[in-house]
Amino acid sequence: MTSFLQQAFNGLVSGSFYALLALGLAVIFGMLRVVNFAHGAVYTLGAFGAVVLADKAGLGFWWALLIVPVVLAAGGMVVERAFVHRLTALDPLYNFLLTFGIALVAQDLLSMTYGSHSQPYDHAPFPGSVDLGLFDFPKYQVFALAVSLAVCTGVWLLLTRTRIGTVVRASTERPETTRAFGINTGRWITPVFGFGVALAGLAGVLATPMRAVNPAMGSDLIIVVFAVVVIGGLGSVFGSVLAGFAIGMLQALGNLYVPVLSQTSVFLLMAVVLLVRPAGLFGKEEHA
């Protein structure tokens, strides 16, 4: 029982990163109908941003947690205005290829600058472990899980309980009707894209004390995150977050009980979900 609970908690921590990344993807897709393949590269840039701030400016983790997501959000908005926006009227494949190219360029630039080896980070807060009753668990991982839950809950409340969230959801689901009420839906596109990018950058900073910081860390993760978004439902914030935590637990428990299937279980689950519900668990089917 102790092993089960410990692995389940490990899964929740891993799932917290899936949830943050999937949340950013879902927000961007919901508003722009753009599959942002550069999301994994932004996650990597978030981690490297924390490392660079520590090495070059002497700024620790808390400064990185504040600065890096804001800087990446600003960069994301520039990219949206300069490139993504110009391709939205074309086939979605064009923006997919654009963001895929951006991801490759970012990864190669990081490899050229820092090499392919992992970068050390010695500025993690909350050293030691906390007693959770049946087992001890690293304090920082508990903190990362708590931050992820708080951010996901905050975004859900923002989208469901505020006027801004109402406008964003209306612009996503019924753009023509929303414009008919005199609301300029276009003004929300760039900030929403930047917000989704900021969530990926935040996940990268949170991962820095726990993960090996190297140029390939995002590309290793993004395929699973795309599967998470598909399972939860493209554009569904609640579905993406719930699927993120569920997939994290599925992989962790798979490592314990069925190691041979632990890496493929998420894709098997995705195939089953798509057979039963092509739009995902919480997605809405589009009718012609």
Automatic annotation (TrEMBL):
Keywords of the record: Amino-acid transport, Cell membrane, Membrane, Transmembrane, Transmembrane helix, Transport
A Pfam family annotated for this UniProt entry: BPD_transp_2
Topology versus the membrane: Multi-pass membrane protein
Subcellular location: Cell membrane
Coiled-coil blocks: none
Keyword DNA-binding appears in the UniProt entry: no
Protein name per UniProt: High-affinity branched-chain amino acid transport system permease protein LivH
GO biological process: amino acid transport
